[in-house]
Amino acid sequence: MQPIPDQFRDLMGAQVATLATVGPNGRPQQSLVWFLADGDQVRLSLNTSRQKTANLTGNPSCSLVIVDPANPYRYLEIRGAARVEADPDYTFADKVGGKYGADLRQHDAPGESRVVVTVPAERVRAVDMSA
Amino acid sequence: MQPIPDQFRDLMGAQVATLATVGPNGRPQQSLVWFLADGDQVRLSLNTSRQKTANLTGNPSCSLVIVDPANPYRYLEIRGAARVEADPDYTFADKVGGKYGADLRQHDAPGESRVVVTVPAERVRAVDMSA
Question: For a Cys staple, B27 with which of A57, A61, B39, B122, CB 3.0–4.6 Å?
């Protein structure tokens, strides 16, 4: 594990992260996701019907980028192997909803469910291209 | 190929994109990059010493995300197989420098060189989570 540098820790409170996963064909996919910081881990609530969720189940290696909303040249990249766990009663989804003032159930169709994706900071790159 | 939707074409003029590549170990890497739009292609000037450049040489599949600087919930994802070509005399690097008011030679150490990376929009996702 690598620590998040103190001078970049503010980014752990940002609104969105870019998640990169790899499909079974070896091709990367990216999407913007809501997240919660939990110490040096990043945690996501993902709908099980999404391609990114299927990708993580097959290949847990992923990367998250969090950009400073005030400075697009300052960002954190966090890489790690994701742990994927069921969240059948929306316990974790409701924590994420608390950060965003949203009910994640409203993003899901009938029959869909949620998982908690935990990404430990195995590798951290803290970049400030404007410095 | 897929066209960039007209209502998202403004993002092709943004300042930065997030590039995702896949390493020889099957793990994704992300970094922020400068880019030029060329119709429905995205073109980058990369230093040959970087991990992302090595990754693209081994596995050309990549993904680019361009986020609306005024709305972090509105973005384009462009996926394609990158073409990597030498740029020994900085012809293309100088075009990128023209967009950013920068001389890319100043980002390179002695002995390093540049390639032009062209990513055709084989797959396009235009997302507005705020709509």
Answer: A61
The number of angstroms, rounded, from the C-alpha of B7 to the middle of its chain's C-alpha atoms is 20
Whether residue B65 lies within 8 A of chain A, CB to CB, comes out as yes
Neighbours of A38 (CB within 10 A): 13
Q: For A38-89, what is each residue's pLDDT tens digit?
A: 999 999 999 999 999 999 999 999 999 999 999 999 999 999 999 999 999 9
CB B82 within 8 A of CB B19: no
B27–A75 CB contact, under 8 Å: no
Residue with the two structure tokens 């066209």: B3
Cα of A84 to nearest chain B Cα, Å: 17
For chain B, list the domains and their CATH numbers: 6-128 (2.30.110.10)
State chain B's mean pLDDT as an integer.
Answer: 96
**pLDDT over 70 for what percent of chain B?**
100
**CB-based contact A77:A83 (threshold 8 Å):** no
Q: Does B51 touch chain A (CB under 8 A)?
A: no
Residue B35 has pLDDT above 90, yes or no: yes
Q: Are B29 and A63 in contact (CB under 8 A)?
A: yes
CB distance A66 to B116 below 8 Å: no
Tokens of B114: 């540049």
* Of residues B25, B31, B95, B96, the one with CA closest to residue B64: B31
Closest CA to A108 of A53, A55, A50: A50
Substitution target from A21, A25, A27 for chain B, most B beta carbons within 10 A: A27
| Cβ–Cβ below 8 Å for B16 and A72 | yes
- Please tell me if residue B71 touches chain A, with a CB cutoff of 8 Å: no
